[in-house]
Design goal:
about 700 residues; mainly beta; Maltoporin, Chain A; 22-stranded antiparallel beta barrel; 3 helices; about 55% strand
Length: about 700
């Protein structure tokens, strides 16, 4: 029996065991202190799972009352997380958790769910994550899960998972109105009402900015509605609807061979530049049934549809190159269904929880088109250069059990089994391909040791997988002529949490992540080739101090060491070997500091300082041509240390009204996203500038009804 067969057999045994466990007569279980809360599959992760990991859970009060360059900025409150901006308005940025990136990338390693609906789409690249549809005001909490430690997530989740959960009920009325530099206007509101058996929640957002660079306008509209009806004390149903529209112009990247002026914009002489738009609609039905006090059944079904277009003017394409850029146009649809059984009670006098689930997801890109543009005529289309469609299906089974073997020790055992297969059709060449069925077993193990009420230690192991770019053409990526192995990520983690006193708490996490079969495009612009085997290791530490009433201080720090273990490329006599060298575009040090004063009424304020250091390769060996250095292809990239300082001053008139002044990038530092292709003559560097110093005035109104 092979290791893979043993893994599958182990999962089947676990699954059968959990079924028997869940359906066993209730008299087998002790009833004391057993309380099962409604568990929304992939919407709410049970706390037992998070206790054995270094996950960060941000509540509504952590997420609101802040100014975000992009909504994704919320996650920067967690240690070891950073965001890279393209400076192109509505274009999704890249974010990174422990050296694994997602957002804009072709092969995403981090997934995100909003109320149980996957946010990734293929509207630009595989796993594209547009967080513009997130409204911080409506979020109840955001879970930031590091690495492949959760059984609830598979595809796109090897490097981590983000789970955003919105407010589902209450009697709330909230409205925030903001005006800022460069005609930044934002209005967001939330209305929640509960009456009898029906709970209703509505949220909206209207956003516009001119952007500090010319041709950088961005308009965004969001609306969501949730209706929960409680038929009985044991059975409830919820419907979620969401609509999102985003349109933007983009000043594009700044090319060093053109100009260093950060006000420049990409132009082919027509007066039209980059830009794009997206429309997305989501719907979800969730039902929950309590069989008894310990057993629960949950079911969901969802559907999404997305229309996306984007223009890209390329300043490096001249009329002789046949065009000035591209227009891409995509329609993406997906749907999913899932059912889970959960138990929470006691077995032999020991606290026990179990979860078993089945899910299925299907997504289809139809059509996926690319057009070339005619030089000097802006957005006028030239030739259709790409026209393909593809689909992907992903059935999954997962299960998990946590068991209190001793009063101080809890163990967690779980795993998931994913199957993926798809179809591809290149309409220009009439090439059709079907992938084989790829199968992957992901074991998850965790231990929690609590020797004292204020101290615990945890350890976990998680295995995850990623797929190469699914939207590549017929000769590359997922639909390759030659079979490939799914990319594997193994994470080991040790940590401790300390609630030392009422005013002092701390946490420390040590981690190590190994990869193999890694064909991720890692943005190593010296090569643009797969990274092969890598190792990412480091530590994360956080401290929260509230020494006197109304004052607080919190800080976190992450050290990241990301290196190639085995990396070699050979092509046409050239050899590049990077074993032992650092991976690019991953800061070695990230630190956050926040000092705040927050009384119930009157004047308050806070100061945030963020530091990112050693963000790029120092250097790497030159490419060798027939054993000798090739002077046209050296790789030298500069390190960029960044310091961001943000400040807020507020005055709360009473419990209903607060007026705030925010100053972001207080030091007015001009930081840039940095990209380079040293293999090109002249070493073409490109920049995407971050916003300069900006001011915002916000009026927050809260008329929540108190119980």
């Amino acid at each position: 029996m092979t290791i893979g067969q043993k893994n599958v057999l182990a999962l089947k045994v676990l699954f059968l065991y959990l079924i028997v466990l869940a359906l066993a007569p209730s008299q087998l279980w002790a009833q004391e202190d057993a309380a099962l809360e409604a568990i929304d599959i992939k919407g709410v992760i049970r706390r037992e799972e998070l206790q054995t990991t270094s996950a960060t859970v941000l509540k509504n009060e952590d997420l609101v009352n802040r100014i975000y360059y992009q909504p994704l900025d919320m996650i920067k409150q967690s240690p070891g997380v950073f965001v890279t901006y393209y400076g192109e308005s509505g274009v999704a940025p890249v974010f990174n958790i422990r050296g694994f990136s997602a957002g804009h990338n072709a092969a995403a390693d981090v997934t995100m769910y909003l109320d149980g609906i996957p946010m990734h789409d293929n509207g630009h690249t595989t796993g594209y994550l547009d967080t513009g549809m997130i409204m911080p005001l409506e979020l109840e909490e955001l879970e930031i899960i590091k690495g492949p430690s959760s059984v609830y997530y598979g595809q796109h989740a090897a490097g981590g998972s983000l789970a955003a959960q919105t407010i589902k009920g209450g009697n709330l009325t909230r409205l925030n109105v903001r005006y800022g530099s460069y005609n930044d206007v934002n209005a967001a509101g939330l209305i929640a009402r509960e009456q009898g058996k029906l709970a209703q929640v509505y949220a909206f957002e209207m956003f516009h900015t001119d952007g500090y660079r010319a041709h950088s306008e961005w308009d965004k509209k969001n609306f969501s509605g949730r209706w929960t009806y409680k038929f009985t004390d044991d059975f409830s149903v919820m419907v979620n609807l969401r609509a999102y529209q985003s349109e933007w112009d983009s000043a594009g990247y700044i090319s060093k061979i053109k100009s260093k002026n950060d006000q420049d914009w990409v132009n082919d002489g027509s007066g039209e530049g980059n830009g794009g738009g997206r429309k997305r609609y989501d719907a979800r039905l969730w039902a929950n049934y309590f069989i008894n006090d310990e057993n629960q059944l949950s079911f969901y079904v969802y559907g999404t549809t997305l229309d996306h277009f984007r223009y890209q003017i390329n300043p490096n394409l001249y009329p002789t190159a046949g065009g000035s850029g591209t227009k891409q146009q995509n329609t993406h649809k997906s749907w999913g269904v899932g059912v889970t059984h959960s138990f929470k009670g006691e077995l032999g006098g020991k606290a026990t929880t179990t979860t078993v689930g089945l899910t299925y997801m299907y997504e289809r890109e139809d059509p996926n088109k690319r057009y070339s543009l005619i030089w000097g005529q802006g957005h006028r289309l030239n030739n259709l250069t790409r026209f393909d469609t593809y689909s992907l299906s992903n059935p999954t089974i997962f299960g998990e059990i946590t068991y209190q073997i001793l009063r101080q020790i809890n163990i967690r055992l779980g795993g998931r089994y994913d199957m993926l297969e798809g179809d591809y059709h290149n309409h220009l060449t009439n090439v059709k391909q079907s992938s084989p069925r790829y199968k992957f077993f992901s074991p998850k193990v965790g231990v929690l040791y609590t020797p004292l009420d204020w101290l615990n230690f945890y350890a976990n192991f998680g295995r995850g997988f990623s797929t190469p770019g699914l939207s590549m053409d017929a000769n590359t990526g997922f639909y390759s002529d030659s079979p490939f192995d799914l990319m594997t990520r193994d994470q080991y983690e040790l940590g401790t949490r300390m609630e030392i006193t009422d005013w002092l708490s701390a946490e420390l996490a040590l981690f190590k992540v190994f990869t193999k079969n890694d064909s991720t495009w890692d943005e190593d612009s010296a090569t643009n080739v797969p990274a092969g085997k890598t190792v990412r290791q480091g530590l994360e530490v956080s401290v929260n101090v509230t020494p006197v009433p109304n004052w607080y201080f919190k800080a976190n720090y992450a050290l990241m060491d990301a290196k190639y273990k085995s990396f070699q490329q050979s092509s046409a006599g050239s050899i590049l070997k990077l074993d032992g060298y650092r991976m690019p575009n991953i800061p070695r040090h990230i630190a956050n500091f926040e000092l705040g004063y927050a009384p119930a009424e009157g004047l308050s304020g806070r100061l945030n300082v963020r530091y990112e250091a050693e963000n790029y390769f120092r250097s790497a060996p030159s490419v060798l041509q027939n054993g000798n250095p090739n002077p046209t292809t050296p790789y030298v990239a500069k390190n960029k240390d960044k310091v961001f300082v943000d400040m807020r001053l507020s005055y709360r008139f009473n419990e209903n009204y607060r007026l705030s002044l925010d100053v972001n990038n207080l030091l007015d530092k001009k930081y840039y996203y940095f990209s380079t292709w040293p293999t090109r003559p002249g070493a073409d560097y490109r920049y995407a500038p971050y916003n300069p110093r900006t001011f915002y005035l916000t009026l927050e109104m809260n008329w929540d009804k108190k119980d």
